[in-house]
Amino acid sequence: METLKITDSGLLTTVQDLGRYGYQRYGIAVGGVMDAFSARIANRLVGNAENDAVLETTLKGIDFEFTADCIFSITGGKCPVTWNEKPIELWRSYRAKSGDRIDMGICQEGVRNYLAFSGGIDVPVVLKSRSTNLRANFGGFQGRDIKMHDVLRVFPRNLPELTLLKFREDLRPRYPKDVRIRVILGQQSDCFTEKGIRTFLDGPYTITPDTDRIGMRLLGKKVAHKTSADIISDGITFGAIQIIGNGQPVVLMADRQTAGGYTKIGNVITADLYKLAQALQGTKVFFEAVTVEEALAVLQEQDRVIADEDSYEKVFEIPEKPVEAPIHPGYIPVPVKGAGAKYVKKLYRTAALLRPVVSKYSVSIEGETFAVEVETENA
Fold this sequence. Notes:
Elements: E1 2-8, E2 14-16, H1 36-45, E3 54-58, E4 63-66, E5 70-78, E6 81-83, E7 86-87, E8 93-96, E9 101-104, E10 109-117, E11 151-153, E12 165-167, E13 178-185, H2 194-202, E14 205-211, E15 215-219, E16 230-235, E17 240-243, E18 249-252, E19 259-262, E20 264-268, H3 273-277, E21 284-289, H4 292-307, E22 312-314, E23 323-324, E24 331-334, E25 336-337, E26 344-350, E27 355-365, E28 368-378
Parallel strand pairs: 13-21, 23-26
Antiparallel strand pairs: 1-4, 1-11, 2-3, 3-10, 4-9, 5-8, 5-10, 6-7, 6-9, 12-22, 13-20, 14-15, 14-21, 15-18, 16-19, 17-18, 17-20, 24-26, 25-28, 27-28
């Protein structure tokens, strides 16, 4: 079902899921989202499976118009977003109508945003994934990044059955200018001197402008090899840290090559990959060595947070028309006060109630929060 018409495609926007696994031995990159934490939550907020296709934007978000009713969410970096010219909060879901407009600005913190739509983006599955491979020009939307005037399809869902959700604010990631990244030393760490490893862990290293979805070049003190930086090429994983011939680290990211011939001092733990994915150039990176057991424990806790129902709060929805309670014998109208009073037509209480009580409610409507006060009496 045609659902989105793009009016501004941003700097680099692609369709991605969690990646194309099982084909590295054929030279096909895994790809997928750079920040899986944000993408998985975006999908959960709209009732999708975690691996459903989303839009990944880079630095500058997109502008688009809904051409069909849809529930959507936006997660990731701190980016100003308006819905029909009204600012809205990220990390929660919204119920949009055909004709509604979304306009996104430039990330103030972080680099990437993830837009999920109920049902998931409808693009062909290529080698078990809907992710875009930009270098090979396949997958995603016509094998390329999203352009102005593109019209995207979304798989249909039964929207009335879906509950709007908000990811708890205390669990949302922060994107500081200095990041501590945990790594597992290994692979070819024996190719470096003890002093070289200490240099690497002492840091800091600065993210350079030479950074994209393939990898991040860092700049700092040179890491000393015992002999050479070259090895017989072997497999490359997401977060592998190569130390190239000049002694500087390169962290391989989602669109990395499948094999490489530089020594790898270690690998970023999976649970910390999102921190690098959201780090701007100029960010200071400090590496910290951890064990495999510690890395697994952190990953399991992150997975628990994403899957735990307690990590999400239900969003109270006001009906499109004001609600009028039925009139019963012995009941009298109750005054409704506050900015949200226009959404509640009448409330009633029994005439027998005695003590006045003011109940306060917070109501969210189309991105705006209203206070509603209901004055009643209690016996």
